[in-house]
């Protein structure tokens, strides 16, 4: 089995833009927990972007209705007067095969960046 096939997939590759995208799925199977990784070689710089959805860090389901309202008010006040809010998001990787696939995606993306960088060093231009 291809190591990348276990909960990790290459979702897009744009050789002309020198970028490749991977999706790492969360072990809990909630797609909202998945993470996207983009490897891009842009203007001579090797870049990795991590894309993840974050949520306000509390769990509504565990609160009484008045606690939910208070948490919303306190979060609103923090944004209004503090200019920030704390967020969190999780990505659960538990199986060895899943870990290997994640590492494989990182290695594959890194390899593509190195190839594009070497191409740039040799004077190759984008198509
Ligand atoms: Zn999850």
Describe this protein's structure.
By secondary structure, this protein is an alpha+beta fold. The protein folds into two domains: 90 residues, no CATH class; 34 residues. It is built from two helices and six strands, in the order βββββαβα. It has a four-stranded antiparallel β-sheet with strand order 1-2-3-4, covered by helices on one side. A hairpin with a 2-residue loop joins strand 3 and strand 4. The radius of gyration is 20 Å and the shape is elongated. The model has no long low-confidence stretch (mean pLDDT 89). The chain binds zinc ion. The site of zinc ion has 6 residues, from loops. Zinc ion (ZN) binds next to loops.
Distance between the termini: 33 Å
Largest sheet: 4 strands, antiparallel
Helical/strand content category:
alpha+beta
Output the radius of gyration. 20 Å
Helix content, binned percent: 25-40%
Read across the widest sheet, the strand sequence of neighbours is 1-2-3-4
User: DSSP strand (E) fraction?
Assistant: 25-35%
Bound molecules: zinc ion
Total helical elements: 2
In one word, what is the shape? elongated
Topology order in helix (H) and strand (E) letters: EEEEEHEH
Number of domain modules: 2
Total strands: the figure is: 6
Low-confidence stretches: none
What would the average pLDDT be, to the nearest integer? 89
